[in-house]
Amino acid sequence: MSSLHAKAQTRLSNNTPLGRGAARLLTAIDELAPENSEVIDVAKRSKRRLQVNTSRDLAVPPVELKVRVNRQRCQGHARCAALAPELFEADEFGEAHEIGDGRVSADLHDKAYLAKANCPESAIDIEER
Amino acid sequence: MNDRAPVADWATDFDHLDPRWVEDPPSIWRELRQTCPVAHTDRFEGVYLPSRYEDIRAVAYDTEHFSSRRIAVREGKELLPPSPPITSDPPAHRDDRKILLPPFTPRAVAKLEPRVRAICRELLERLSDRSQCDVAVEYAQEIPTRVTAHMLGISELEGARFRKWVRDLLELGVTDPGVVRRVVAELDAFFAQEIAKRRNAPGDDLVSYLLDTRLDGEPLNEEHISGTLRLLLIAGVDTTSSMIGASLWHLATYEDDRKRLAEKPDLIPTAIEEFLRAYAPVVVGREIVKETEIGGRRLRDGEMVMLAFGAANRDPAMFPDADRVIIDRTENRHAAFGLGIHRCIGSNLARMEIRIALEEWLGQFPDFILSAGAVVKWSAGTVRGPRQIPVTLRN
Question: What ipTM did this prediction achieve?
Answer without folding.
Answer: 0.94
